[in-house]
Design goal:
The complex is a heterodimer of chains A (about 110) and B (about 120).
Chain A lengths: L3 E4 L2 E4 L5 E7 L12 E6 L6 E5 L3 E2 L7 E6 L2 E6 L8 E7 L6 E2 L3 E5 L1
Chain B lengths: L2 E5 L2 E3 L5 E8 L7 E7 L6 E6 L8 E3 L7 E6 L4 E6 L8 E9 L2 E5 L3 E5 L2
Parallel strand pairs in B: 2-11
Antiparallel strand pairs in B: 1-3, 3-8, 4-5, 4-9, 5-6, 7-8, 9-10, 9-11
Classes of the chains: A mainly beta (about 110), B mainly beta (about 120).
Chain lengths: ~110, ~120
């Protein structure tokens, strides 16, 4: 199985500042069709996960442009600009390139 | 509005079985794959399996760790999917989510349903 390693596991941030989360894959996530199936999910406390970013950098419906994804191959980053209170929670990267789909361990973002 | 609603969870004794349902609204479930994911208390997300749509022959895939205990099915006429679970043990205690899958992205998630395995 593909292993996704997220760093940091905990990220205290100041409101209005930025946060970055890294996700490193144990193998390339570039599929034979040329697409890279790496997504980012956000889970607020007590809620179900929601999709933020798909195929590395595409924001899903109604996701604010404060969220941006980047990277290629095995190294990916989620950046949250101008952090707001509603951004707290756990962020997961997930790969769908190879079955079984796997998730990173999660990164908890909290306000300082 | 796109919604997925799970039901059928609750308390079950070790060794027992349970069937979860996932009812979709606001879209035609028949056009999408459906995946099931669970989250044990205080833990991360664990993929359980998925069922394809009709064009892909309702093909199913499962996590190897389940050892064949779980079965995913769907009834597109009811806009619903199901997770049948057998031989449940304490480490199956978790919140179970169904999700709408589109090109390997889990676009929408249900609210989750708690399954507790305990005597």
């Amino acid at each position: 199985d593909i292993v996704l390693t997220q760093t940091p596991l905990f990220s205290p941030v100041t409101l209005g500042q930025s946060a970055s989360i890294s996700c490193k894959s144990s193998q390339s996530l570039v599929s034979r069709d040329g697409k890279t199936y790496l997504t980012w999910l956000h889970q607020r406390p007590g809620q179900s996960p929601r999709l933020l970013i798909y195929e590395v950098f595409n924001r899903f419906s109604r996701v604010p442009d404060r969220f941006s994804g980047s990277g290629s191959g095995t190294d990916f980053t989620l950046k949250i600009s101008r952090v707001e209170a509603e951004d707290v929670g756990v962020y997961y990267c997930m790969q769908g390139m190879l079955s079984p789909p796997t998730f990173g361990q999660g990164t908890t973002v909290d306000i300082k | 509005e796109v919604q997925l609603v799970e039901s059928g969870g609750g308390l079950v004794q070790p060794g027992g079985s349970l069937r979860l349902s996932c009812e979709a609204s606001g879209f035609a479930l028949s056009s999408y794959y459906v995946a099931w994911v669970r989250q044990a208390p205080g833990k991360g997300l664990e993929w359980l399996g998925r069922i394809a749509h009709a064009p892909d022959n309702y093909n199913t895939l499962y996590a190897a760790s389940l050892r064949g205990r779980f079965i995913i099915s769907r009834d597109d006429s009811k806009n619903s999917a199901f997770l049948q679970m057998h031989s449940l043990q304490s480490d199956d205690t978790a919140v179970y989510y169904c999700t709408r899958e589109n090109w390997a992205a889990y676009e929408y998630w249900g609210q989750g349903i708690l399954v507790t395995v305990s005597s």
